[in-house]
Amino acid sequence: MTVRLLPEQVIDQIAAGEVVERPAAVVKELAENALDAGATRIEVHLRGGGVHRIRVVDDGSGMDRQDALLSIERHATSKLRALDDLMTLGTLGFRGEALPSIASVSRFTLTTRRREDEVGTRIRIEDGKLLDVSDAGGPPGTEIDVRSLFGAVPARRKFLRSAPTELGHCTEAVTRLALARYDVGFRLVVEDRDAFSVAPGEEIDRLRALLGDERWIPIDGARGGVSVGGWIAPPEVHRSAGGLYL
């Protein structure tokens, strides 16, 4: 059997599995990008457990056309310039792999506009193939629409669980980010129905809105240069379903 170099599209689809394991990974990557862009409100819309459709909308800084086109290139990032920057990173992502990986295994549309620009940019990609780049209207920020995840990679899609299971993982991903960033509004919409919507506020208010109105107890401590703070529920509070958020 002759040894051949794989086509770039096949290489990208194989490599995408390292970044995009399931719909929840897409949700996490896109929401973290929104946070890194300075968003004050993030909406996540899901269909079919995220397999059929994931749409993430933010009011962050947006991108001009040049940056939007670069964002879908592998290893292109605004968060890292040199090796030394790895020691001082303050962003959630930096490798420049998420968007091209997602775009290589889905029907992918990116729409973005900066506040200072009158017209935004829309980029459409299908399974790694660039279909169209055009002008677009809309509010400042970025919207990414991901459809038919792994549709062209059946070997990957067959390893996904049922839609309710994948939805649970997606919900968990959004909940974790919403708990950590209580200064940012989050909205989760499942099959066109609100699962939850929380406005920016205090940490305890976010905790109660997402996990229940228990008598949360604050904890605070420091030792050996390490400080820990957070909230715990009293011993008498218990649930049939376990959950741990750090």
Secondary-structure blueprint of this entry?
Elements: H1 8-19, H2 23-36, E1 41-47, E2 53-58, H3 65-71, H4 98-103, E3 107-113, E4 120-126, E5 129-136, E6 141-147, H5 154-157, H6 163-180, E7 185-190, E8 193-198, H7 203-211, E9 217-223, E10 226-232
Parallel strand pairs: 1-7
Antiparallel strand pairs: 1-2, 2-6, 3-4, 3-6, 4-5, 7-8, 9-10
Helix pairs in contact: 2-6, 6-7
CATH topology: Heat Shock Protein 90
- CATH H-level homologous superfamily name: Histidine kinase-like ATPase, C-terminal domain
Alpha-beta content class:
alpha+beta
Domains, number = 1
Strand proportion: 25-35%
Unreliable segments of 5+ consecutive residues: none
- Determine and state the CATH class: Alpha Beta
CATH architecture: 2-Layer Sandwich
**Termini Cα gap:** 51 Å
Taken from the alpha-carbon principal axes, the silhouette is: globular
Mean pLDDT across all amino acids:
87
Largest sheet: 8 strands, mixed
